[in-house]
Write a structure and sequence with these properties.
Length: about 500
């Protein structure tokens, strides 16, 4: 599991080491230099541009530049006059070229463009975890100009960010202005929460965490966000024992699909079966039931005892009869204390928050549905705002509803009412296809049925991870349909387990 910490937690963990005289900056700079060297292997006459701002982040960049002086033609560009003094001294002592851009004119911008154009690697040390809001002044304009230059370059340079891409909020991942997207972010002490949360995580590229010996100090502080990885799947997945039977493996009730959208029933039911639950009970209109049984003869039509319910996929907001059945299923799940996945057409049918206290309920909205859910509870928010600050609005929805919220998107954000948060970025753009959310709902329903003792947010993150990986396996770089994701589930799980 990867954990993302607040800037305050990182500083608190660093404080004792710094007080003891530990050379944390030199260790950080050495890690950045090593990462750059990896990108220079095999290049003739390699060149490196190091963009330097103020504070310790700029100091990391300056010491890294000094360490790289024997490996490449290194140019440091200072975007402000008050940079880290010891770092600048080290860079000058290593005979690194230093360009001052603190008060640029057009000649200054031209020099930056020329240096950037011949550099194979750009190192972003413009701003660190102490900066809030947009990059301003020279640093902001430099990031904006270089982003445009990189997009136009015939051979795009590799961008290595120091600690985090400058302009990404360390705690929230929010972006208020220009950011130079990184191919690799070398972060120190522990991952910053903003490197796991959208949109910051999509600007960070590959993430490399350099511990610096702070593990024990961080272990006593709660992370802001976590991300499950492969090893967590093996640890958490409900693998049946030799004496298992279908009821011990979990029974899922599916109230999905309608005469208008029967395919949702097929996808949701199939995903639950392929995920490995013991049985699926399907409740729906005759046409949808026939399609479910034709594709999944293992499914059992009609009601009965279950360990979780999945309600809502494929039901329109104007389908009054079907929505009545959804409402009944929700009330039954809450009364019986079993797992409940609420998707699509059921999201506006939730009981009051106090009735969900302690219930194992997961809402699975996409950004538009989350905006509608919040607006119905008095929040002035639209889809664009949700996409810009997914974590903020998912957390608000969890607070207002008393349910765990799984906000679907390029990075899926899961927030429990108690604040436990996960951010999973395991999927592919090819998953943006009709029915993919129905598949996720089925996967999640099966896991809620089988993992009654695991915290709900962790179960939801596990479902998002496996769903995303199945999408990647099914696509393999080419278009897919949602049914391909269902079929890819066993092959996805086999190497993970």
């Amino acid at each position: 599991m990867i954990r993302g910490w607040s800037a305050e937690s990182i500083r608190a963990a660093e404080a004792p080491a710094l007080a003891a005289g530990e050379p944390l900056m030199l260790r950080a700079a050495a890690a950045v230099a090593d990462a750059v060297r990896e990108r220079l292997v095999g290049l003739d006459d390699p060149a490196v541009l190091v963009l330097v701002g103020g504070g310790n982040n700029g100091g990391d960049g300056l010491h890294a530049a000094a360490a790289l002086a024997d490996d490449a033609d290194v140019t440091v560009v200072l975007t402000r006059p008050d940079v880290h003094a010891e770092g600048l001294e080290a860079a000058r002592a290593a005979a690194v070229d230093v360009v001052e851009l603190a008060t640029p004119d057009e000649d200054g911008w031209r020099v930056l463009a020329e240096v950037a154009d011949r550099a194979d690697v750009w190192v972003d040390a413009l701003a660190g975890i102490g900066v809030r809001g947009a990059l301003r002044g020279v640093a902001g304009e430099a990031a904006e100009r270089l982003t445009a230059l990189a997009e136009q370059a015939p051979l795009r340079p590799v961008v290595v960010a120091v600690d985090l891409p400058s302009g990404v909020d360390a705690d929230t991942g929010a972006v208020a202005g220009p950011v130079l997207p990184a191919d690799l972010t070398v972060t120190f002490g522990g991952a910053k929460a903003g490197l796991l949360l959208p949109p910051g995580d999509r600007l960070a590229g590959e993430l490399r965490v350099v511990p610096l010996g702070l593990e024990e100090a961080l272990a006593v502080q709660p992370p802001l966000v976590s991300r499950l990885v492969d090893a967590d799947v093996a640890d958490l997945w409900p693998v049946p024992e030799a004496d298992a039977h279908k009821y011990t493996r979990g029974v899922v009730g599916v109230v999905a699909g309608s005469d208008r959208y029967p395919g949702a029933a097929v996808l949701t039911t199939g995903a639950a079966i392929r995920t490995g639950c013991g049985m699926v009970r399907y409740l729906g209109p005759e046409r949808a039931e026939q399609l479910v049984l034709a594709r999944w003869p293992e499914a059992v039509p009609g009601p009965g005892r279950v360990q979780s319910w999945v309600v809502g996929p494929g039901v329109a907001n104007d389908d009054d009869a079907r929505r009545g059945e959804l409402r009944e299923a929700i009330e039954r799940a809450v009364r019986d204390g079993v797992g409940l996945v609420v998707d699509a057409g059921a999201l506006d049918l939730l009981p009051p928050r106090e009735e969900l206290a302690g219930a194992r309920v997961v809402l699975t909205p996409h950004a538009g549905e989350l905006a509608t859910l919040l607006s119905g509870r008095g929040e002035d928010v639209d889809r664009a705002a949700v996409e810009h600050e997914t974590h903020r609005w998912a957390a608000r929805a969890a607070e207002l509803t008393g349910a765990t919220v799984l906000a679907k998107g390029p990075t899926t954000v899961v927030v429990a009412p108690d604040g436990e948060t996960f951010a999973q970025a395991d999927g592919t753009g090819w998953l943006a296809t009709a029915g993919a959310g129905d598949v996720l709902a089925g996967v999640l329903g099966a896991l809620l049925a089988a993992l009654a003792e695991v915290p709900v947010a962790r179960v939801a993150a596990l479902a998002a991870l496996v769903h995303g990986r199945a999408g990647r396996r099914a696509a393999d770089g080419a278009p897919i349909a949602a049914s391909d994701v269902v079929d890819a589930l066993p092959a996805t799980l086999r190497p993970l387990l």
